[in-house]
Recover the amino acids of this structure.
């Protein structure tokens, strides 16, 4: 049963993170997730210190609100234009994170976080922390919190899909159409912040970032519609969760590391294999260059009129090795004929001008 | 030009915008009648794009009032359409040509409602007008610059607005596209639509536009091309650096 809950928590977390990360990746703001994963830590610790009750759902809300405030502050700093955008993330979030770590180390109000948990969460123990209401055991608390996050994300995307799309693609158009991109953006970041907080305990700060960025970044390489990006990102997230869980069991290690690694592996595989990936693009490029090389030689020749190899080669500005390779290819495919002494080239009679 | 109605199509009063210490736009006033086809010209940094963006509410105003047919466009967004600079969006965004054009219907739909068959049909029609119907299913990442510009114009057409704000629609497009954009503007103006378009190429102002707004932070002159687009005004606008061979300058 614990097995089942571990997997269920991992799967729901991965799905919520992948969906909420998709619009950040599409907006080319993927690092906001990194920022949030750092910024919520002091939020969690302070909310915990204020509430004193680790099981209260208010803890999630409080921490998410603090995460949101932090990210809005960073965006305000960025808007001043004094510090550039990546630098403002780089300056502010590590500082916030270190404040969180400091507060944790000081054992403020007896917080239960350990440094290890902050980095990679504690998925293995999450199923043991039950959500008990009126004496009824409703399952692990972490499952309820990440499920709430998933519902919020799905609800938001379903209700405001077109608004999210237009404000991601063209915020100025969104304003001129009468939408309020600022407010939608803040509301969306609130949902993302809640997702990060809810995932934090089970997944930790590194895994949250991996699950938010890698699946949508991989999905974009395969499909070309926002809807499909969301769907495929969700699938990649789930695959990472299952694979990570299985690898963790097989190696008898915590699942968070293998999950992040799986997500990264899926991205690398997509980068290599997807239609917009490097292998397909590289092969298409090499093929078209090869074809052009043959055509370029053929264009300098006429059937029945041999020309010296050296003249053709120097016109093309090719090295000897490249020239030999192209001629060898073209002899079999393009009807190119080299005389016996290999001094001159001509086109076979069957081939007209190209 | 004889105004067809007493009410100006576009009325801008005292529009002031700043991004820092200096005003980007100072106390700009202008009035355009229905069917006016106006170029906004001025040197770099004159606030041309800012004028459009402030009128649309995309950038905050320090002061000023905008009326379209007597109505605040912030209350009735359907009255205005915006064609931003091509470079303002990420053309690698995973979406199709038809989808981008359909975004023009989002304002009419309002919050929460999704575009349906009639919205896509309207988008398709606009694409046909821009001679882009065959590219409806194409990924926007695969478009040429001229095609991108025509997608943006189709998106504005779908909005079926009264006033069209265009930010350099002719920038970086080939001669064929330039011609089709110009004829589209002409058709819109003939149908009583008003166009305010940022334009860089002084030589083509008299050919493509009937009105000109000379802007350098403040509006220096507004009127028909015949009235205001002549050498002394332009020399003042550009600080005496207008090349002598700009053709077709009205000789007033």
């Amino acid at each position: 049963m614990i097995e089942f809950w571990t997997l269920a928590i991992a799967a729901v977390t991965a799905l919520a993170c992948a969906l909420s990360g998709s619009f950040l990746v599409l907006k080319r703001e993927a690092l906001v997730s990194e920022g949030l994963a750092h910024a919520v830590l002091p939020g969690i610790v302070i909310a915990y210190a204020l509430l004193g009750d680790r099981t209260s759902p208010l803890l999630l809300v409080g921490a998410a609100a603090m995460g949101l405030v932090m990210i809005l502050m960073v965006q305000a700093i960025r808007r001043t234009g004094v510090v550039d955008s990546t630098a403002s993330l780089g300056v502010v979030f590590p500082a916030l994170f270190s404040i969180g770590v400091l507060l944790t180390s000081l054992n403020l109000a007896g917080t239960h976080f350990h440094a290890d948990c902050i980095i990679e969460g504690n998925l293995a123990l999450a199923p043991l922390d039950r959500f008990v209401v009126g004496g009824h055991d409703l399952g692990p608390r972490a499952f309820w919190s990440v499920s709430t996050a998933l519902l919020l994300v799905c609800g938001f995307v379903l209700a405001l899909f077109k608004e999210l799309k237009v404000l991601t693609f063209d915020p100025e158009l969104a304003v001129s159409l009468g939408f309020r991109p600022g407010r939608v953006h803040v509301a969306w970041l609130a949902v993302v912040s809640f997702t990060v907080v809810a995932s934090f305990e089970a997944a930790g700060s590194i895994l949250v970032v991996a699950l938010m960025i890698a699946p949508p970044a991989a999905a974009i390489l395969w499909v070309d519609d926002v809807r499909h990006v969301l769907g495929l990102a969700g699938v990649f997230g789930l695959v990472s969760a299952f694979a990570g869980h299985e690898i963790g069991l097989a190696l008898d290690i915590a699942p968070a590391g293998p999950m992040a690694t799986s997500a990264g592996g899926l991205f690398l595989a997509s980068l290599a294999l997807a239609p917009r990936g490097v292998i397909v693009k590289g092969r298409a490029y090499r093929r078209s260059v090869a074809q052009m090389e043959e055509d370029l030689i053929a264009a300098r020749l006429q059937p029945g009129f041999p020309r010296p190899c050296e003249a053709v080669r120097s016109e093309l500005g090719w090295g000897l090795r490249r020239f030999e390779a192209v001629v060898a290819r073209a002899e079999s495919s393009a009807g190119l004929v080299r005389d016996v002494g290999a001094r001159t080239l001509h086109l076979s009679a069957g081939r007209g001008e190209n | 030009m004889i105004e067809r109605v007493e009410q100006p199509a576009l009325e801008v009063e005292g529009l002031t915008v700043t991004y820092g210490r200096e005003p980007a736009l100072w106390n700009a006033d202008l009035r355009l009648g229905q069917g006016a086809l106006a170029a906004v010209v001025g040197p770099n940094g004159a606030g041309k794009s800012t004028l459009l963006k402030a009128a649309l509410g995309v950038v905050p105003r320090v002061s000023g009032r905008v009326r379209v047919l007597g109505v605040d466009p912030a209350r009735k967004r359907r009255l205005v359409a915006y064609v931003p600079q091509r470079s303002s969006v990420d053309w690698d965004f995973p979406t199709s040509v038809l989808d981008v054009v359909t975004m023009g219907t989002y304002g009419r739909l309002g919050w929460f409602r999704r575009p349906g068959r009639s919205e896509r049909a309207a988008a398709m029609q606009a694409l046909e007008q821009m001679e882009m119907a065959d590219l409806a299913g194409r990924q926007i990442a695969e478009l040429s610059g001229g095609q991108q510009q025509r997608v943006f114009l189709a998106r504005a057409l779908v909005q079926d607005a009264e006033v069209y704000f265009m930010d350099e629609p002719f920038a970086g497009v080939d001669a064929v596209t330039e011609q089709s954009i110009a004829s589209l503007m002409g058709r819109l103006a003939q149908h009583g639509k008003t166009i305010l378009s940022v334009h860089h190429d002084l030589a083509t102002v008299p050919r493509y536009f009937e009105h000109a707004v000379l802007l350098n932070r403040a509006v220096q002159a507004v009127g028909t091309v015949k009235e205001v687009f002549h050498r002394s005004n332009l020399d003042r606008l550009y600080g005496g650096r207008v090349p002598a061979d700009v053709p077709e300058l009205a000789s007033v």
User: Anything to note?
Assistant: Chain B touches chain A through 33 residues (CB under 8 Å). The radius of gyration of chain B is 18 Å.
